[in-house]
Amino acid sequence: MHKRAAALLAAGFVGAVTLGGAARAQGTDCTTIQKTLTERKDIVAKVNSASKGKNKLTPAQACTLFTRLQANGSEGLKWITANKDWCSIPDSFAEGFKADHSKVVGLRGKICNAAQQQAVLEKRAREQAQNGGGGGGGGLLGGPGLTGSFKLPQGAL
User: Fold this and answer.
1) 65: exposed, middle or buried (C-beta count within 10 Å: 0-12, 13-18, 19+)?
2) Is this prediction's pTM over 0.70?
3) Which of 68, 80, 98, 143 has a 20 to 30 Å separation from 152 between CA atoms?
4) Nearest alpha carbon to residue 44 among 101, 6, 96
5) For the segment 73-89, what is each residue's pLDDT rounded down to a tens digit?
6) Local structure of residue 94 (DSSP, 8 states)
7) Which of 111, 112, 95, 108 lies closest to 4 in space, CA to CA?
């Protein structure tokens, strides 16, 4: 997905720049999509660098990034749909952008669901820790556990 997204973004930049000059005289600025595409490229770069780096994203951080990416895609699709004919946007670009957006929507749902589940589990763990372990005690078999100190015998065994 990442290579294809980068290729789509590159094609979008070229298409928007090439088509922008001719359509500008007709009343609609066909280069306004560049802001959306630049923002999309930046978000994808953050996702890619986090997935390759040592500092992995938490599910909550990934959910935030993919939520931004989904909103960006919705904005881009809206603009492409409204200006496709006027700005002579190729069908292949519009279809590729739409397919990429659909993948992002699916991934975002899975990532944000995982983030929500993790938050629930962390909340339960905190509550159990505050309540003394939840099951009646913190020991191995539900009792109070081992406490105190134990002396080892001195000398030869």
Assistant:
1) middle
2) no
3) 143
4) 6
5) 999 999 999 998 999 99
6) H
7) 95
